Each structure stands twice: as C-alpha cells, then as structure tokens.
C-alpha cells in the first residue's frame, strides 16, 4: 500500500507509513503566482492500493485533497484518511439559502467515484458521514488521551468536558482508567445571571484535565479553565483531539491559568503530544 501525504499532514502520514513498515510517497506542493495550488505525486500510481492522508482545516487542505484524489485515479483501490474533517460543525441549514458545508465537501470528495472508503477521527457530528457516497468510518482517539494521562501519572485527575456535548468524550477518556469525569453546566439564576459549575464532581484541590474535541479560538476552554480555577482546581491541563489554535487561542488558554496544552497530531502543532498514527495504521491493515 502506498501512503500519499497531503500538504498539511506530512508528519502524520510519515508516522502511519512507519507503523505499516513503509515510507510515505514524496509529493510536490507549490503555489502558482496567482495563488492556485499545484500538487504532484512523484511516484507513478498504476494499479496499486493507495491511502491519502489529509486533514481539512482550511480551504488549502480541501484543494490539496481533491488534487491528490485526482492524481491517483489509476490506483486499484483508494482510501482517504481525513484525520480532522473540517466543516463538520456546519451540519445543517440554520437560515434559508445556506450551504450545508459538510455535505458540499462530502459530495466533492466522493463525486468522481475514485474514492473507495473514508476514515475520519472524532468527527464533530458523526451524522455528516452519511453525506459521503462511500463507506465512512469515525475512529475514536479518546482512549489515547486517557492512556497518555495515565502514563503521565498526574495525581488524582478529574476529567472535565466544557459542556454537555463533551460528555461522551470525557467518559471515553476517563472510564478505561477509572478516572472521575463530569461536564460543566450552565444554570440561569436570573434574567442576567448565569452560573457555570461542574455538574456533580468537586474539583477543589484536584488536578483537572479538560477535554474537548476541537479547540478553535480557545474561547470555550479559556472560560472553562477560569471557572475551574474559581472553584479552586489545582493544576489544569487542557487536552483535545483537534487543535486548530486559531487567532490568539494559545495565549487565551494559557492566560486563563492552564498548566499545559496537549493535542493529538490530527493537526500538527507544537502541542501534538499524542499520535493517532498507530490507531489509523491498525485500521488500514484490517
Ligand atoms: C463545540 O461544539 C466544539 O465541541 C468546541 O467546543 C468548539 O468548537 C471550540 O471552539 P472554540 O475554541 O472557538 O471555543
């Protein structure tokens, strides 16, 4: 099997290839003077099985992925791994006339009939996978975060999701290791007063691990961290599957009193301490 890296996912593609005992194929990526992207798979692809690895966190990622799919059209079988499937938060029409962006993207990727199967990692809303015309599977990296926390031997950790939407994630991180978990709850006290606090667990004097699927602007996490500090939490670690760290997210989070930020490598950054490469390689070899 040939592993074809996208323009922004070269490190992860290399790690997946190593897990499979091979090397990622060399590709060329450049921009024309007018800003258009140029993509070339240097190895000749004729009749073999290929796996393209490319996250979609900006428009460049999507164009690069579409170009790579076209470039490998003579492959015998084409798998696409999209470690971070961007646009998945735009999963329905909120106002008339709006694009359902996750559907538009899924249609674009599966349109030409070249792609045989798709893997994503902790997609924000798994329901969007139905928009692909081919088999699409969501892989769960939450247990890898749990393993990482266990291996760091952080004393008496409590896993906190910043909102109800993060409950399943917090549970999947915590349960295999028997850690406590909870989510933050917003309660309206009066017309202009809102109280946010952990639903059931006390965090006073305990080390807290906040988990979320995506960190984008860092607003959600910064608010959660400040709140947990106000409830006398000890050290606060922030973990996520997909670290976008848009705008000033890093400083917003650190300034809220966070000790450390930890992310996976679905999007490569200096916080990518946890690799999803083995999980993906295991799936590819089944
Ligand atoms: C929201 O539903 C997601 O799970 C994340 O909590 C959200 O995308 C984080 O965004 P931000 O970092 O901009 O607050």
Describe this structure in words.
This protein has 286 residues and is α/β, with parallel strands linked by helices. The chain folds into 2 domains: 2-140 and 276-285, 3-Layer(aba) Sandwich (Rossmann fold); 142-265, 3-Layer(aba) Sandwich (Rossmann fold), CATH 3.40.50.2020. Helices cover 28% and strands 29% of the residues. It contains 8 helices and 14 strands. The protein has helices at 10-19, 59-71, 101-110, 142-152, 167-174, 219-230, 249-255, 277-284; strands spanning 2-5, 27-31, 37-41, 49-53, 77-82, 117-121, 135-139, 157-161, 180-190, 193-198, 207-215, 236-243, 260-264, 272-274. The strands form 3 sheets. A 7-stranded mixed β-sheet has the order 10-9-8-11-12-13-14. Strand 12 (236-243), helix 7 and strand 13 (260-264) form a beta-alpha-beta unit. Helix 4 (142-152) crosses helix 5 and helix 6 runs parallel beside helix 7. The mean pLDDT is 94. Bound molecules: ribose-5-phosphate (R5P). The site of ribose-5-phosphate has 10 residues, from strand 11 and helix 6.
